[in-house]
Amino acid sequence: MSSATETPRRSALLWVMAIIVAIAVAGWFAVSCSPDRSGAERPVSEEEAALLAGMRERNADAEPVALRMTMPVAGETVVVDAYLDWANPLLYARIPDAEGGHRLVQAVPGLIASHADDEAAFEAVEVPAEGWTARQMLSGATTPQETTLDILASSLFTLTAEQADDPAALAEQATWREEGVIDGEPVDSFRAPIMVEADTTAGPAPEALYSLDAAGDLRRFQVNTGEESLSSIDFLREVAFDPASLAPVDLLGGPTISPAAVDEDLASTLAELRAENWSESAEVDMTVPTGDDQVATATGSVDWRTMTAYLHVSDASGKRLFLARPGGFAIQPTDADELPETPPTEGWETHALTDEDVADSFGPVESLVYRLLEMSAEEADDADAIAAEGSLLRVDGTGDDAVYVVEFPVAGDAEAAAGQSAFRYHVADERLVEVEMMTYFGVAGAELEYEDYPMVAVPWEVSEAIG
């Protein structure tokens, strides 16, 4: 049974709309309330309009850059150091927390992830691989500081475009405000709309301040987030750092993908994956985002010989044992931290997939488990169809250690553009080693390690109920 999931790699329209609404609600009083400043404004020249129009296109081709964000929050000023990669896009920051310490944050369009502080890793521009939780931007924020950070992070992601904006429109909408110096570079500051595609806003876009140097590089970006002063982002373009490890964590989708066609050899390998699993069993280690800052973990096994998954699951609601077969699944609360070798004979709550109310108990953990069960077939898949419809998204590692991250359709999957499927597969040594699933709160993952497991002794009553 496949479950449709909402992918975080969806269209950017929703989060762009959210940021535009948030800034529009805040208004522009923090800039326009200064009589002498507003009196100094003048229309932009043709050259200045062209400079503004090319800014987002320049950003799209720019190398990752260090940032310093100054956020007014509830009468205090919060200073945040960060790194930004527009190409991916990704914001990686170390921010103060309510307890007087710090935490690490990664943001991609629509999602933001948090991690316990690791100052040494951040200073080295390294990203811890595990221990992250994710939430939706804006709707998942629980404090004024989180809301302000979400607005600024989302605003940064609007500052890039594949082609230049319309200089004629900016000539009508933008105004020059003042000259200045930032990091030793002379700049001109302009008041102009947040530059997004026209069809993403219902009315005039809210405005921001842009400070550009003579080359057209953005040196400072300021926006009103509803406080008494503007939030400000300085682009520290002279700060050198190694961006090699600057990539989203797996929960946010992992490193950059570049969808390409599946060649004949890889298509043949992918066609055999499920058939290879037909007589196999494997250890399973799962991480599944289930809500704002909530992650479920699960360990256990999947046995394709008997089409049985047996797992110990931990999440915000507690711990439970989980059994699944093609016809349904069974759960049982537990106090144990580990999976019993033999399932208990009593106390199971069963759910047949044909039950009318099964959807009430079927969440992302169940969706990913059933996708694992579906990764087995008595016969090989059609290599020609996989070559035509599959995509090679990226290759991690090299040579004998290479891991191929791919998409290809399994029966029942909805059609999707390359890079936008609900499921991704990691393949190494011609075997399936991980399944990723896109959810509303981030990317779930199930890692596989093949091992010859004894068949799980599913209690008879449970077996009758779940197939």
Q: What characteristic shape results from the CA principal axes? A: elongated
End-to-end span in angstroms? 13 Å
Across the major sheet, the strand order is 1-8-9-10-11-12-2-3-4-5-6-7
> Mean of residue pLDDT?
89
The major β-sheet equals:
12 strands, antiparallel
Percent of residues in helical segments? 10-25%
- Number of DSSP strands? 24
> Mind telling me the C-alpha Rg?
25 Å
Task: Give an overview in words.
It contains 12 helices and 24 strands. By secondary structure, the chain is of the alpha+beta class. Strand 14 and strand 15 form a beta hairpin. The N terminus is likely disordered.
Quickly describe the structure.
The protein is 22% helix and 35% strand. The chain has helices spanning 13-26, 29-32, 35-40, 46-53, 55-60, 119-123, 144-157, 167-173, 264-277, 364-374, 383-389, 460-466, and strands spanning 42-43, 65-73, 76-85, 90-96, 102-108, 111-116, 133-136, 175-182, 185-193, 207-213, 218-223, 231-236, 260-261, 281-291, 294-303, 308-315, 318-325, 328-333, 349-352, 391-396, 403-407, 423-428, 431-439, 442-450.
